[in-house]
Amino acid sequence: MRASFRLKTVVATLGLLGAAVAGQAQAQNIKFAMVIPTTGPLTQYGDMVKEGVSTAVEQINAAGGINGKKIEVTTVDDACEPKQGPVAANRVVNAKIGYMIGPVCSGAAIAAAPIYDNEGVVVVTPSATSPALTEGKNFHYIFRTIGRDDQQGPSAAKFIIEKAKPNKVAVLHDKQSYGQGIASSVRDELQKAKVNVALFEGINAGDSDYSAIITKLKSAGVDFVYYGGYHPEMGLLLRQASEQGLKVRMMGPEGVGNPEVNAIAGNAVEGMLVTLPADFSTNPKNAAIVKAFQDKKRNPSGAFQLTAYAATQAIAESIKAVGDDPKKVADHLHKAKIDTVIGPVSWNKQGDLTSFDFQIFQWHKDGSKTPAAK
């Protein structure tokens, strides 16, 4: 009995010691959160961000981590839904995580940003482009590694004015923060240039039949359509316009630049125009990083993979510089210039990039894209 009791005591003690050692090892990690849509219709955008963050973390950890500590990533789902944004934010805060890459979508980001800022969580979004996220908010902890819609919109409008040269334009949007915001920016730029914007109208995201708006487009005699929103609706607009004999060129922001649009639109996707971040994967300086993506069968040339990689780099480099303290990291980001996979980046007082390069691409029915010449 005594020997058995002693053996049990030794085993229990070793178990406690093992747990303590494991706890110490975990405490040596630096916790990052990644808030992305893992459910809902926009999960592919979450996949893009996940590929970028995962590759960056693997590279950083393999090189010794941050000041000898490894990055540990927790994934939180917000479904790209504004109502879920605060729920996801509270999960990050309650987990005592001080650094976050995301949110992916502007609506969810806008809804969650006050919580992150009040609780001192450093947020770097690689994909939320709405100016309303940062404009006039006086946030200290919210940053981007992508440009704003009021940079992207003028790029799209410039192409429409100088290259497409349509007679009549319709500007549509999905009535949401991101889509309506960028559509408004494009409309305003076109009107400044005296381009005839014959229609500015919202559609309901999630609908399956857009024949009514297509009939309006035909009646208005438009020859170019700009749509502010995401790929599910753009795919349907393209397909149903083709089915109804409406021959117009369509253009959208980076939210439509998703391979899934091909499955929805079919052959009608050929020639779709899209504004996207420059393809940083073609930069020779990124060859090793591109190989790291490819070795894991990940795509480095999508809309958000490398902006997500850069977001992870920015946080990691700031922690290296000032230590594992979110307040100091935020202070550092506001004044630093950091070399990243998307080039040297710096931020203004609002947490927006001081510059960002949006380019125009032409989408093809095989899922590839090429720079748009006209």
Which bin fits the share of residues in helices?
40-55%
SSE string: HEHEHEHEEHEHEHEHEHEHHHEEEE
The proportion of strand residues reads: 15-25%
What separation lies between the terminal Cα atoms? 88 Å
The residue-averaged pLDDT reads 92
**Widest β-sheet, arrangement of strands:** 7-6-8-9-10-13-14
Q: Are there runs of 5+ residues with pLDDT below 50, and where?
A: 1-14, 16-26
Whole-number radius of gyration?
23 Å
Categorize the overall geometry: globular
The count of helical stretches stands at 12
The chain-level structural class is: alpha/beta
What's the story with the biggest beta sheet?
7 strands, mixed
Identify the quaternary structure here: single chain
Number of strands: 14
InterPro entries: Leu-bd (IPR028081), Leu_Ile_Val-bd (IPR000709), Peripla_BP_I (IPR028082)
Protein name: High-affinity branched-chain amino acid ABC transporter substrate-binding protein
Keywords: Amino-acid transport, Signal, Transport
Family: Belongs to the leucine-binding protein family.
How would you describe this structure to a colleague?
This is High-affinity branched-chain amino acid ABC transporter substrate-binding protein. Keywords: Amino-acid transport, Signal, Transport. Belongs to the leucine-binding protein family. InterPro entries: Leu-bd, Leu_Ile_Val-bd, Peripla_BP_I. The protein is built from 12 helices and 14 strands. The strands form 3 sheets. It has a 7-stranded mixed sheet with strand order 7-6-8-9-10-13-14, covered by helices on one side. A 5-stranded parallel sheet has the order 2-1-3-4-5, sandwiched between helices. The chain has a two-stranded antiparallel sheet with strand order 11-12. Helix 2 crosses helix 11 and helix 3 runs parallel beside helix 4. 48% of the residues are buried. The N terminus is likely disordered.
